[in-house]
Specification:
The protein is an alpha+beta fold. The protein has three helices and seven strands; from the N terminus they run E-E-E-H-E-E-H-H-E-E. It has one domain (37-140): K homology (KH) domain (GMP Synthetase, Chain A, domain 3, 2-Layer Sandwich), CATH 3.30.300. A three-stranded antiparallel beta sheet has the order 1-2-3, with no helix packed on it.
Length: 141
């Protein structure tokens, strides 16, 4: 899969892939307009939304209505590094949710592909190509 990242103006940086655009921006204090989430918040939101897809699929397979179900994601920060130190995803279920599936819906959410990538992160390489816009290219590592 390929994603194209571009700079539509201001502090916006957008990702384009599979016919979609994921916009990001910085808050005004960071030089942006606050027109979209920051790249980091977009990244973090994939944990809860991915878990949510698994919860939705679990419920759909069993004919369980999703009305009143929501996921709440909280992040702890390491004050020394400023990095996220832990993530808690809580699935809030209505009283009408079948009790026999309470533990199973957690196991379903636990299968989230984003979570698995956090547990086994890929190696990320960054390089550059000179003259890409003009047709000639020289890769720089």
């Amino acid at each position: 899969m390929e994603m194209i990242i571009d700079f539509p103006g201001g502090a916006r940086v957008d990702a384009h892939f599979a016919g979609f655009t994921v916009p990001t921006d910085q808050p005004p204090m960071g030089g942006g307009e606050g027109s979209a989430p920051t790249p980091f918040l977009t990244f973090l939101s994939t944990i809860g939304t991915c878990a949510g897809i698994y919860v939705l699929g679990f419920c759909r397979q069993r004919g369980i209505p999703t009305d009143g179900i929501r996921l709440v994601q909280r992040m702890g920060m390491d004050p020394r590094t400023g990095l996220v130190s832990d993530v808690q995803v809580t699935i809030q279920l209505p009283e009408t949710f079948p009790a026999k599936y309470v533990d199973a819906v957690v196991r379903a959410a636990d299968q989230c592909a984003v979570k698995k990538h956090f547990e086994h992160p890929p190696v990320i390489h960054v390089d550059s190509v000179l003259g890409a816009a003009t047709g000639s290219s020289a890769r720089v590592a």
